[in-house]
Amino acid sequence: MWPGSGFKYQQKLPTFVQAFDLSMNWTQRVDIAVSWLVHETKPANLVLMYFEQPDEDGHQYGPNSKQVDQQLQRINAITSYYLEQLIIHGLGDTVNSIVLSDHGMETINHKTILNLNDYLDPEAYSLCGISPGLNVQPKKGKNELPGYLLDQKY
């Protein structure tokens, strides 16, 4: 259950798919995933689970916030529950589990933030996307960045 999990890859869909639904609680997600692993006729050989935390709270409150600490406790609890379910279903020694994060986080120091408008005319560019990596698109007729920007060491 993650955004995009129900799309075809090489004209095939996964055998089991749970639609992306943030209202589904984490225990239900684990129970569904484990049910795929113990399926009577076609047990899954690869299962991916998605948990939106602590990413959401990390972006909203910062990586060192009490909210993120609380979400880390929730992640620890659901991971323990998942491992317990593997043992209960006789899979504790046969399933390999890998826990991943989509990225790390760093607290922002507002003293080191650069204001792009101090370097470029705001009428010369548009910002594209919401990625932490800055994506700048020159506006029509404004195709070049000033040469001095290319030599800057930040």
Can you describe this structure?
The structure is a single chain. The protein is mainly alpha-helical. The chain has two domains: 1-107, Alkaline Phosphatase, subunit A (3-Layer(aba) Sandwich), CATH 3.40.720.10; 114-150, no CATH class. It is 30% helix and 4% strand. The chain has helices at 26-37, 55-61, 66-88, 147-150; strands spanning 125-127, 136-138. A two-stranded antiparallel ribbon has the order 1-2. A hairpin with an 8-residue loop joins strand 1 (125-127) and strand 2. Helix 1 runs parallel beside helix 3. The longest helix has 23 residues, at 66-88. The two termini are 40 Å apart. The mean pLDDT is 86.
Short description:
This protein has 154 residues and is mainly alpha-helical.
Descriptive key words:
mainly alpha, 154 residues, Alkaline Phosphatase, subunit A
The string of secondary-structure elements, in order, is HHHEEH
Terminus-to-terminus distance: 40 Å
**Multimeric state:** single chain
The secondary-structure class comes to mainly alpha
Total E-strand runs: 2
Count of helix runs? 4
Query: What's the story with the biggest beta sheet?
Result: 2 strands, antiparallel
List the helices and strands and how they pair.
Elements: H1 26-37, H2 55-61, H3 66-88, E1 125-127, E2 136-138, H4 147-150
Antiparallel strand pairs: 1-2
